[in-house]
Amino acid sequence: MTINDLKVGQSSVINGVGGEGPLRLRFLDMGLIPGTRVTLQKIAPMGDPIQIHLRGYELTIRREDAMQITLKEETV
To answer: How far is residue 55 from each of residues 20, 34, 44, 49, measured CA to CA in Å?
Structure first.
């Protein structure tokens, strides 16, 4: 499961950060660190980008980048 799979209002915890080199470092610099809870806030009208809430702030990322961030499967 990735951030891209979340529905609006749904949240989960980051399990892993993909990407290579500068892209991965950029994700980590933005606070996308394993163990961090993220919530999908909004999806743009055309479906890209998406807005997520983490660590007390809002972050807008492309869906392509969201597919690089894996989430823990949570049981209800």
So the answer is: 23, 12, 21, 19
